[in-house]
């Protein structure tokens, strides 16, 4: 039995996106759409990023952005979205993990053959290698005329351990990168 038949996730999730208030209000008013991030260090590849079911984490992220000299966020704000995961590359399921593992093997083989330099991850915030692997997987699927992934979903252990020898951390989270705008079914203002 192939697990590919189960790549679609038959449910909606609530996603929260930290941004500047002016951007969030414009999205809520239907004037603009959220823009996909296309940094070379986006760990789930290019897309519109959401914290899954975690409005507080999105608030902390927006506040952190407001403190960065390079950021355009001046007034931290959070917008909610109803997201249909659609055809999802889930790094919480074995088939998604296997696809990413195989793609990494191919990326390393190309690098070892001298055809390209292998990007490196740099700490927790700059995941250049991870982004390169995910983007390569998307290109492989496009060239092979395979169904593109609408979303990419991953769980990340982050922060301090809750207690000695704990596998739990104080900033664990699930993030979603939305590649297909049709997966965003609507935006909303989170209740304070």
Number of strands: 9
Rg, rounded, reads 17 Å
Low-confidence stretches: none
Strand order of the largest sheet: 4-7-8-2-1-3-9
Portion of residues within helices:
25-40%
Largest sheet: 7 strands, mixed
What is shown here, in short?
The protein has 192 residues and is an alpha+beta fold. Helices cover 29% and strands 24% of the residues.
Explain this structure:
This protein is an alpha+beta fold. The chain has one domain (12-192). The protein contains 4 helices and 9 strands; from the N terminus they run E-H-E-H-E-E-H-E-E-H-E-E-E. It has helices at residues 21-28, 55-66, 94-112, 128-143, and strands spanning 12-20, 48-52, 76-84, 88-90, 121-122, 126-127, 151-156, 173-178, 184-188. Helix 3 (94-112) packs across helix 4 (128-143). The mean pLDDT is 91.
Keywords:
alpha+beta; 9 strands; single chain; seven-stranded mixed β-sheet; two-stranded antiparallel ribbon; 24% strand; 192 residues
């Amino acid at each position: 039995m192939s697990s590919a038949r189960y790549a679609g996730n038959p449910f909606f999730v609530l996603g929260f996106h930290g941004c500047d208030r002016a951007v969030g209000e414009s999205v809520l008013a239907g004037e603009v759409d959220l823009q996909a991030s296309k940094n070379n260090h986006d760990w789930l590849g290019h897309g519109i990023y959401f914290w899954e079911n975690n409005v507080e984490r999105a608030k902390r992220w927006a506040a952190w952005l407001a403190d960065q000299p390079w950021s355009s966020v001046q007034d931290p704000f959070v917008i909610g979205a109803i997201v249909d995961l659609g055809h999802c590359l889930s790094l919480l399921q074995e088939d998604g993990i296997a696809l990413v593992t195989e793609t990494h093997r191919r990326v390393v083989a190309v690098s070892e053959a001298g055809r390209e330099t292998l990007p490196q991850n740099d700490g927790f915030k700059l995941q250049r290698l991870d982004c390169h692997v995910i983007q390569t997987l998307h290109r492989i699927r496009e060239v092979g005329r395979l169904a593109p992934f609408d979303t990419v979903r991953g769980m990340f252990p982050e922060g301090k351990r809750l207690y000695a020898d704990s596998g739990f951390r104080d900033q664990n989270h699930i993030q979603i990168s939305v590649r297909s705008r049709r997966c965003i079914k609507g935006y909303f203002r989170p209740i304070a």
